[in-house]
Each structure stands twice: as structure tokens, then as C-alpha cells.
Amino acid sequence: MKLPTSPLQLVSHYFQRGYFPLNAQEAEALAAYCTRRQIKRRQLLLQTGEICRHVYFVVAGCLRLYAVDTGGKAHNLQFAVENEWLSDLASFYAEQPSGVFIEALESTSVLQISHDDLLDLFVRFHKFDRNFRILIERQYLQLQDRLLQSISTPAEARYRAFLAQYPHWAARLPNTQIAAYLGITPEFLSKIRRDQASAHRRQP
Amino acid sequence: MKLPTSPLQLVSHYFQRGYFPLNAQEAEALAAYCTRRQIKRRQLLLQTGEICRHVYFVVAGCLRLYAVDTGGKAHNLQFAVENEWLSDLASFYAEQPSGVFIEALESTSVLQISHDDLLDLFVRFHKFDRNFRILIERQYLQLQDRLLQSISTPAEARYRAFLAQYPHWAARLPNTQIAAYLGITPEFLSKIRRDQASAHRRQP
DNA sequence: CAGGACCCTTAACCTAGCTTAAGGAATAGC
DNA sequence: GCTATTCCTTAAGCTAGGTTAAGGGTCCTG
């Protein structure tokens, strides 16, 4: 049973590492529910007030999930590049209006699964239930860690932790986006980078 | 079908507001799985490194869930008073070592359900599955909101928001605990309170 | 090739919130 | 009811990080 195209192979291969791997039948069902979608740089996949109706799997490109505060400033909650899932899970599962935005930072190609189709998969194959619960657990943990870091760790250490934990994000994201993730201004991030560079030169 | 004691009635009544209410059979099953437990002030229900094996429902008293940073300072992630659930959900569901502590801030009486028993309830009654998923969704949302607030809102506004959103917590918690929740020092909270009081006197 | 739109950096100045230290008020626990 | 903690407050420095303004680099796009 061959899968139709390479992006669809990608999705099912995603669940190889750290999840319950799919068998041929499950992979096929997943592939059948996935829809391809192309998004231009700057285009929104979700806006505040809308109900988030899909989970997205990035085939190529880069997305960010962000919220806008009362002062109009954007704060990044999450990124997703190739081989990563993204959704506003709270809005998606509860079917309630979202408080965040999802935007393409580059020209991006995604596979999307709708809420109804995903529930269908959950009912037909228990494994998806488990895999997506692991997904939400991981996001929960990640969120808890970030909250702790943001109230207990200075920006310089947070930046170092970010580089260590998400090197693949750091490598391709503009510093303005990283700053909006760390909760600091681009100017201050620039200063941190300068200080780290000089500290590194002194102690190589 | 009468429930044996008043605390057990409490638990099933919890699901009346905003959840899927239980019928007599479900309430009885829930009651059958609940174990009563008494904790003294300062006593720990969970320590870092342990797997969190129970969800707790507070009958009387007050719990906090907190993490300790590398500098040894405690940061409160959540409180629970009468009629509220508390657990390290990430550790509980994934059955992985926890990174947080749960401690009684007062002499506290809880009902606890073990992981296995809860899964049993999930299988026997679909409604528990849904109710506990709503629970984790709400916690997820709450966590996301707090993260946003902590990186976008000054301490004074965060304190006001806390008072507005959790008046029942604010009324009984010492300010040291509230400060550790807001991510500020008790000294600075004291200053905020003084400033707010004088601003209020000027503009009643 | 020219002109925007981003993006990165620097520097001077400013402020929110931390640290330390200390005294007084309120509780917990015996 | 007494005593030891815990808790709250004040105040004087101090630091992390924000703000504003400006210059320069790079890459799309017409």
C-alpha cells in the first residue's frame, strides 16, 4: 500500500519519534483526511475571534502563533517549521473563539485536518487519540516551562536556553521574531547578542 | 440512591457548573473511587522527581502548586481552595517525573482519585472523559493567558487582574504567596498596594 | 537599476522592579 | 495565654530592560 505523495509520507513519519508509530492502514487514513494548502508570507491562517477549525502540519516554510496585547504589541507563543504541528489547541478542542493569530512568516505549504475529521480518526483508530493527547501534553509542559522561565530567568539566560532548545528555529527566524518570543525588545536582544559575542571572544 | 457523605456530594456537584452534569449512577461511581485524605499545613502532596499519581479535589483548606528555580526561589503556578481540582496534569497523564511541588498552605482535607481509577472511570463513563478534558483545556487556556500577561503587562495591572479574576484566592492567601504567583517580590507588591490605596483615596 | 520594506545595531536616557536591611503586626502551635 | 515564626511594610540604592532616535545593510519588486 503505497502513499500517494511525499508530503503525506511526511505526516505519518512524524509519529515515528516519541509517539506511537502508525501502521499502513492508519497512515492511509491519516493521508486521506489531510488537505494541502499553500499560504503566502504574511498571510493569516487564523485571526482572533475566529474558531480554530484545523490543525496544521508544516510541509515547507514557517508559521508563528502570536497574541496581540492591549498596547498593540505582538507576542509569539509558538513557531512551527517543517515537520511540526501547529494549532490553537484550546480554541480547536473547545470550539470557542480564539484569542490568537496564526501567520506565515515565509511562503508556506501545510497539510490541514479539520476538527470533524480528526474526531473521526480518534474514533476509528485509538492510536490517534493517544498521539494527539501526547501532543497537547507536550505543549502544556512547554507552556509551563516558559511561564516559569519568563518570571524567574533573566533575558540573557532565556536567550541562551532558546538557542539550545530550538536551534532549528533560531537559525532561520529574524531576531525581531525571537525577541517577540522571549518577551524583550529587538534592541535589547541585539545588546545581549553583542555581549555574548564579546564574552565568547574573551573565553573561547 | 443517596451519596454516603457530604464531601462526596461536593465532588459530583462540582460538575454542575460549566461541565456535563453527572447522573446518579455516575456520581456514585465517582464517589466510590474517591479517597479522603487529611494534610497538615506545610505538608507536601507531591515533590519534584516523583510521578504525580493522583488528582486532588479540595474539600476544605488550600493547596498550591509551585516550582523552584535554579536560584532556589519558589514560583506559584496554581492555587486550589474548596471545590477546586489540582494536579500536575502533565506528570499525571504522561506518568513522567514531575518538575513541581504541591503543598498545603493550610490544614487541608482532600479527596483523591488515582490514575488507574480515573482511566477506569473514563472507560466506563464517557462523560468523565469529556469533563476532565474540559478541565485540562481550561488549565491550558489559563496558562496561555498568564504567559501573555507576564510578558506584556506591568505588575500593577497584573495584580488588579488577579484580584478581579480570583477574588476568593486573594481574600485568603498571604501576600507572599500572591507575589510568588505574580512573579514579583513581596516588597514590591506591598508598594503596589500602597500606591493603589492612595490612588483610590484620591479618586473614590 | 532604483526604491521600498524589513531588519540589525548603537547609544543616551529613563523607569519598573529587585536587593538589602530593619522594625512592627499578626498568627500558629504549644 | 505565650512565644516563635511568619508576614507586612518602609526606604535607600541599584540593575535589567524599555524608549527613542538614528544610520546602515540586505533583499525583494517594479
UniProtKB/TrEMBL annotation, chains A, B:
- GO CC annotations? cytosol
Question: Matching SMART domains, A to Z?
Answer: cNMP (SM00100)
What residue stretches are annotated with the Cyclic nucleotide-binding domain? Answer: 45-122
Check the record and name the SUPFAM superfamilies matching this protein.
cAMP-binding domain-like
GO MF annotation terms: DNA-binding transcription factor activity
Report the superkingdom from the record.
Bacteria
Protein name stated in the entry? Crp/Fnr family transcriptional regulator
Q: Which organism is it from?
A: Hymenobacter polaris
